[in-house]
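S.,

Sequence below, as promised.
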Amino acid sequence: MGSQEFLNICKAKVAEYHNQKKDKTDSTSAMTANDVFVVWYSKSLQNHKALLSTPVSDGMYYELTYNGDKKELYFDAYKKWENICYPV
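The prediction came back faster than expected:
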């Protein structure tokens, strides 16, 4: 699988997940893959990993990993609870 194909699949999966899980009272329209953006991406040998997010201010970010040996895509959804700065 090529890099662009992987990223296109990831964006579609994130949009699909968001549309399925969004609050029923949320008045926003359905999200498309074009609304999803890549924060970070890496490819090593036959494996791919990407961190993605959306413009929705819900604190969610998504990690998708493609295992090229098993031809499997793993999807993790995370929520940022807080950001604390500690002086060192």
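Residues 3-22+32-79 form one domain.

Coffee later?
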